[in-house]
Hints:
The chain is mostly helical. It has one domain (9-77). It has three helices and no strands. It has helices at residues 9-20, 27-60, 67-77. The protein is elongated.
Amino acid sequence: MAISADLGAPLEEFVNNLVRSGRYNSKSEVIREGVRIIQEREMKLAALDAAIARGIADAEAGRVLPIEEAFERLRKRLDLPETGTSE
């Protein structure tokens, strides 16, 4: 099924320039890649939303760590030096 879209002059010119430059073979190819990029972004956003929902559910269920313990785990995971407190 064909789709027709009015991109407006600036986007239409951008698409035409991409095809003229040889970067893409056709306007359809440019549009397909754009839609694929949006699809990937939407999938990443959905995964982020799910992770946030899991984190909120964990917090509401009391599955939490004291902040210093959480930071220490993060420092170890990222292989960062331990921080000391000066007195």
